[in-house]
Amino acid sequence: MATVYLATDLRLERRVALKVMHGHLADDSQYKARFIQEARSAARLAHPNVVNVYDQGQDAETAYLVMEYLPGITLRDLLQEHQILTTTQSIDILEAVLSGLAAAHQNGIVHRDLKPENVLLADDGRIKIGDFGLARAATANTATGNALLGTIAYLSPELVTRGIADTRSDIYAVGIMLYEMLAGEQPFKGEQAFQIAHQHANDTVGVPSEKNPRVPPQLDELVLWATARNPDQRPRDAKTMLDQLREIETSLDELPSSTVVFATQRTAVIPRSSTRSTGETGATKVLRSPTTVRPQPRMQRDSTTALGNKLRRRKRRGSIWVVVAVLLATLSAGAGWYFGAGPGALVAVPNVSGTNPAAATAALTKVDLLVAAAPTSVFNPTVTEGSVVGTQPEAGKQLAPRSTVTLLVSKGPQLLPLPALVGLAEDVAKTQIASAKFIWKDSQLEFSGTGAKTTVLRVLDADGVDVSTAPSYFERKSLSLIVSAGPVPRVEGKSFSEAKALLESVGLVAAEGQHTYSDSVGRGAVLSITPRGPGTVKPGDTLTLAISDGPAPVAVPNVVNMLWIQAKTVLQNAGFVLGYDMRADDPFASLIARVTGTNPAAGTLVEKGSTIKVRFTS
To answer: Which domain holds residue 56?
Structure first.
């Protein structure tokens, strides 16, 4: 329903995605309403995992959206390249999708077209949901009408059978995507759409571990929960499923490593397992070889001796307990000092560079540090606008618990003055680019009729857009130079072989083109060269040469039976040279002599300028 262009916001100097509705849909009120609905739905969501919509408007009959430009790939591209994703990759992508979707559900919006093509993976690691063109209010419980909207592979059973969508329909689509990430294929397949729709309505989605044994049971259960045919048996919204996903992520992170316990008689090894038996405590048991207990002979003791021995044993036990108590008190005091005022009380500031402010705040809070209410905005040429550049104090710094840390948030690259580079020699331009804190990417040669060789003709940004006259440009961004290779050689009027050799000497390829008649250029010579205009010819390009076939042939006029005085004028005006008996030019003879024939005969096609022989009556 639309075409998306990469555009430049001239007022704010930023790249944007401009979505322009197709002209043939402008008169369709349903499509126009859906187009505007996308802007309204996305604009209500200020969330780092949802593509931002900056503006919406209409120019004459053309409706358009101005959206955030996100260079990168889609989840579909990633699945086509890798087919099966790891558990960690799948959880990371699913967590971002559910976070953005939870914000939509919280704002009463159902996406209704979730699929890998609408999950955008940016080059800088951001993951965002896009394309809210089919979104509707969650409370409306809207039907789709006569046609099913959305992609059939991800439609929930209730959408297939009743055309009804709510937040749980989005959850079903998320479950199908999770299955596809883990198993490497969609759960339902068919040659025609109605076959897949029938499976959605009547079959149960399997577990991805059947296709990929490395999938943990917890994610199998999450897939089954999200793709239950009965909507009441699914998570009620994305927030519910996101909470469960984070619990699963925590449980996977906390699984114990293999434990080895050494004993005198034998060694017991307990492997790591993702499941625990409910009948065991989980503690490691060490089995020892049985020892033989030998009865000791009974000894008779004097009662006085026995009482003395008993008293000495009590004193020894008392002394031992005193020593133990002193040691415990010392250790307790030392530990209290270490963790209360000593080195153990300090907290290292975690590295949160590259994350969004919400994630950075969570990471700092987790280690018992406070985050300043207002972050500090700083220019940064490498960290995406809105992401965290670093902290103050910096990462790794040891601080007391509850210390305040300020987030440094990127404002993107700084706009710096762009020097005038057009007309400069290439080496001089490269030096000025480096001095102005930009990056020279490459130089490309182009033939020019105006610029001297090695002179800069144009300047292009990283996206190939001409910024030659731009007053400013982003710090540390790359620039390409279009440099003159000199003029294209003039080959008009030369033979094709001469023209070809001359063009090849400057790195161009010549191809023989159309042959055309010409009154001014001789047969076999070059008439014209294509292309010739500025900005169109580069080294290695093929130029087409039009070749002259000389003057166009002319039909010999029919002057038979004309008086010679009339026939002579007709033949000369046609451009022919005349061969005849000169006596016919006598004033008296020219008035009575008539033409009896010509050679070539009348109507014959000959080159202009050919000689025509004329015969007269005797």
So the answer is: 2-68
